[in-house]
Design goal:
Order of helices and strands: HHHHHHHHH
Mean pLDDT: 95
Low-confidence stretches: none
Number of helices: 9
Number of strands: 0
Number of domains: 1
Largest sheet: none
Strand content: under 5%
């Protein structure tokens, strides 16, 4: 059954998701032009990127409307179909020679700054907890420490941009730290769903991810955070 969530939180989340979408599309266009790509070709690449993302977002919305994801009895869990594809796509991009060349032209602080969105995501999760939609364990009052990544992204990105932080080890360590915290909250979120192996039983079960717009959380927002960590690590390793 779809949980009743306030319009304020739903709109806030949609705005956050589309802000990420806009930043990615804008970034692709900017980097293509900085690489010296023909403006027409750069425009086509940008449009293809935007179209692919919109198609995925609308596909997630459609899938959620079919109640396919709201099945917590079958194994493997149905929501894997919205999580695995973007994660695999991120990994394939990182190992692609063409994308590695693209990353060489992406300002290093971009893939770090964007992680600051996790501050706002954590505030939305906290709001969901206050409305009784999710349990405390999924917030910074419980077992979710992901806000630390968002807070530290701002100074780390600034130091990288200003050239004051040049240590590859520190940048990679920060990204690994971010991936660990991301894995932590993803695990807590999964183990808070009504699946047969649910562990965190405090508060209501986490079913919001099966419905629009919060289906975009595991299907788009979390993969963006994951991808940006991978991209930042790859960028750092490519530096001479």
């Amino acid at each position: 059954m779809r949980p009743i969530i306030s319009n304020t939180l739903e709109v806030s989340f949609v705005v956050l998701a589309f802000t990420l979408f806009a930043l990615i599309v804008w970034g692709v266009k900017k980097v293509c032009l900085n690489m010296g790509t023909d403006p027409i070709k750069a425009r086509k690449t940008t449009l293809r990127t935007g179209f692919a993302l919109i198609l995925w977002l609308m596909g997630l919305k459609q899938l959620s409307s079919m109640n396919f994801l709201d099945n917590w009895h079958d194994l493997p869990p149905h929501f894997l179909v919205i999580v695995v594809p973007p994660i695999l796509a991120s990994i394939l991009l990182v190992v692609s020679p063409r994308f590695k060349n693209f990353l060489r032209h992406v300002p290093a602080h971009w893939t770090i700054y964007i992680q600051s969105f996790r501050i706002f995501m954590e505030l939305i999760l906290w709001g969901l907890f206050l409305e009784g939609i999710i349990g405390r364990q999924m917030t910074f009052e419980g077992r979710n420490f992901d806000v630390l990544v968002g807070l530290t992204a701002l100074p780390i990105a600034y130091l990288v941009m200003s050239g004051k932080l040049k240590s590859k080890a520190w940048i990679i360590a920060w990204n690994i730290f971010g991936l660990i915290l991301l894995l932590n909250i993803v695990s807590v979120a999964i183990l808070s769903t009504p699946l047969p192996f649910r562990i965190f039983t405090e508060g209501p079960p986490n079913t919001m991810i099966a419905y629009f717009p919060f289906v975009w959380l595991p299907g788009f927002v979390v993969p963006v955070a994951f991808a940006m960590h991978l991209f930042s690590i790859q960028q750092t390793l490519q530096k001479k």
